[in-house]
Structure formats: structure tokens, C-alpha cells
Design goal:
With 430 residues, this protein is an alpha/beta fold. The protein is built from 15 helices and twelve strands.
Amino acid sequence: MFGFFRRKKNTEPAVEQPASTPSQPERVEQPQDAATESAPAETMVKTESETAQHISAEPVPAEEAPAQPAAEITEDIIVPTVVDEPAAIAVTTETAPAQTPEASESTIVVPVEPAETSSEAEKPAKLGWAARLKQGLSKSRNHMAKSLASVFGGGKIDEDLYEELETVLLTSDMGIEATEKLLAQVRQRVTLKGLKNGNELRSALKEALYELLLPLQQPLILPADKKPFVIMMAGVNGAGKTTSIGKLAKYFQSQGKSVLLAAGDTFRAAAREQLQQWGERNNVTVIAQASGDSAAVCFDALEAAKARGIDVVLADTAGRLPTQLHLMEEIKKVKRVVQKSLPEAPHEVMLVLDANVGQNAINQVVAFDDALGLTGLIVSKLDGTAKGGILAALAAKRPIPVRFIGVGEGIDDLRPFDARAFVDALIEDE
């Protein structure tokens, strides 16, 4: 926030001073536009004697009222000390009237971070997770609603209706295997419940999808006897590993766990600096090296965590494509070196998947699972795709637990996967 310093206004009449004094050079008034633009600098600059510069309440021509000593100029001055929230700082005098909307001598606006106001920053926090999940899946839900409108329109349930439903599921990135399983489950429910028309298929489809996704719902639970608990992050370039690490650090801190970050991405430019920013934001330690390989950084991080009694270590690694075989061998080396510091580590090997890549996510899961033995997935950027059926495709092809899903850019928009909440947000009830 900002610190405030107020000086008592001098009620004695001002005494004219010579145009130039040895202690202070002559001050020349600037045009209104220039004064407004340079206002932030004037409120922050100090003279050689460490006294704050002051701005007069009303514009006075230089030849009529030369600059007066700092002791006789009175004004409320707001001196920013620590900026906690992005906002605009307004310095307002008591008597000066506003000149024009564009420029005013009485009000000085100091822009700090115009990207977001405090009220905007509080909006995501006011929404519960179910509401944020529904908001994040709005593109996928709208796509499903438009595609399924004819299916749920009340027509007779026949082979033509099943073919139309199959097309909708395939175009939602659910894949062939998941689509076949879902259709089989829907057909079975139609027979058992004696459903007659299309508008009764909605609940049957939702239940079939929920049963398909339920095996993926395995929240990450930290065992008390494994300290530090080491989580190794992997993924292709741009999937969101570093951002996910920062959000995970916040998540574990909310559970009362101490966290340490290992900047193991030594290849990408500014990756170390990005992780250090997340560390400063969450007030956690980041182990990094100016140069060196990823394995050495992760090894040092584990040694530091053991010495400090840290609960959770999040180890970042460089992004790589599954087809880059030499890089896949390199990440295998990182895992082996980590085991030299802690034989049972890493306890969790998470692959970060970008939901926008569609069916290519299956290939990534298979390749990284074969190389590292994945124990969990993080599906990020679900809010950026209209085809959220990729989770169903993963469940049918390689049912590795989905530990977390991301539906936004906020620090709280990464949460454990809940199959029921996901299905309800994807397919709305009538």
C-alpha cells in the first residue's frame, strides 16, 4: 500500500523571493499537458538535501510568482512506499479547481500497473470452484450444446440418432475408443430404462461419460512418511509446466506444506527467471544455477530440501517433443540423478498436457509414460478449447490419473479433477 505524509499548511502570506537563489535554481512552469505527464516523476524525486519536491496548488506564471522555498509550499503529498495492488495514485490539493478533463494542475494521476484494478483482481476469488469450472468450460459446453441440440430434440431413438450422436462425440475430441464405449453404454441404458425419445438421452449420456471419467479421479495425497515429497514435471514446449508449478506451490501452501522449487529448465530463455518470479510471489525458495544441466539443479534442490526439512519439492524440466529421442534420454537421466539423492524419488512424475492439442495429447502421454513411468497428469488450458472431450479419450486409451485441471490464468484456477463436476459443467441439464 502507500505511505502518507502530510505537512501542515502555512497560513502566513508568501514573501516574494529573488528570481534565483544560491540554494535553489529558478523553476520554470511547464505547460499543463507536460505537467500532468511528468507528475509521477515529480512526486518521487528528491533534491540533494533529501527534501521532497512540491507542486503548487494553482498554476502561476513564472514571472509573477517565482519558485518559493520548499518549507513554504504546502500540499498533501502521497509518497508510494510499497505497491501491493495495481492501481492509480491520485494526489489532490484542497483548493485547486479542475481545469480540463485532459490535464489538471490539481490532480496528478500516477499510473502503476494499468493492466488490472483491485476490483477486477477480486472477481475470480468471489466465484466458487464449480462456477469457475463452468465458466472455464464454456467454449466446450457451448460446442456440445449446439451439436447435441438435434440429438436431444425429442426425435425418435433410432440408428440415425445414434449416428448423429457418434459424430458429435468424435468432433469433440473424444476419440474413436471413447466414442464406442460411450455409445455402448448409452444403448444399454436406453434398453434398460425403456427410453423412447431423444430428450431422454441427456441423462444417459451424462452418466455414461461420468463412469468413463471416474477412474481418472484420483487426487494427489501426500504421505506423511515421505519427506520431502518430490514431484517431477515434464511436458512439451509451451504446455504450461512452469506456470503449473507456480500454481501447485500455492495449492500445497494452502494445505500448510512447505515448498521448494527446482529450476531444472536450463534450456529455455528466461525459464529460471520466470520460476523465480513465482517463488517470490508465493514466498518459496527457488534453487537455480546460472549454468549447468537440469539433473545437477534437481540434485542440489533435493539436498537443500532434506537439510531444511521441506515438505514438497517441485522440479521443473525443459520442454521437449516425444520425437526428440536424445532429449527423452536426457530427462531419463534427470530421474536417475534424483534417485541418487533420494532412492524412492521422484514420488510423482506429472505430465502437463495442453488441452488445445487434441488427439496429439494421446501420443504425448504414451511416449512420456514409456520413458518415465507417469503417475499423474495435469490438463491445462481447458478454458481455451471448444473440444474438452480429450479427457474421455485419455480415459479410454491410457487411464493415467488426472491430478489437476486448469481452467484459467488465475493462481487458483488449477484444482484437483472431479469427474462429476466436470461432466456437469460440460453438459448442462435441460
